[in-house]
Every structure is written in C-alpha cells, then in structure tokens.
Amino acid sequence: LRHPVEGDASVRAISLTLFGFVYIPILFVGFILRVALLPPDGATEMAG
C-alpha cells in the first residue's frame, strides 16, 4: 500500500463500508415502497 492504515482505522473503514452497503438499499427500498404503494394526497381531486 502507498499509505498503510494504522490502528483500528482499517476496521472502521471496512465496517462503515459494509454499513453503507446495507443501509443504502434499505433507504432505497423504503422510498420505492412509498412511491409504489401510497397514493398521493390529492389523487381523488385530480381524477375528476
């Protein structure tokens, strides 16, 4: 490595990376479920 990581910084970096790989899809799925399943507030007024 050009810049070796000392101490527990490598463990912290790996754990934050894994946390990001888990947390970002959870946020994305929550957003998609809201968009797909919840109707907008003014849906009935806009239809007629």
Folded structure, characterized:
There is one protein chain. This protein is mainly α. It has a domain of 29 residues. The longest helix has 29 residues. The radius of gyration is 21 Å and the shape is rod-shaped. The relative contact order is 0.07. The model has no long low-confidence stretch (mean pLDDT 82).
Q: What is the element layout, followed by pairings?
A:
Blueprint: H1 9-37, H2 43-47
SSE order: HH
Structural class: mainly alpha
Beta-sheet strand percentage?
A: under 5%
Tell me the number of helical segments per DSSP (H or I, 4 or more residues long). 2
**Integer-rounded radius of gyration:** 21 Å
- Biggest sheet record: none
End-to-end C-alpha gap: 65 Å
Determine the mean pLDDT. Answer: 82
For the secondary structure, the number of strands is 0
Q: Helix coverage percent of residues?
A: over 70%
* Uncertain regions spanning at least 5 consecutive residues: none
Instruction: Estimate the global geometry from the Cα principal axes.
Output: rod-shaped
Task: Note the quaternary state here.
Answer: single chain
Considering the chains and any ligands shown, give keywords for the structure.
single chain; 48 residues; mainly alpha
What is the gist of this entry?
This protein has 48 residues and is mainly α. The chain is built from 2 helices and no strands. The longest helix has 29 residues.
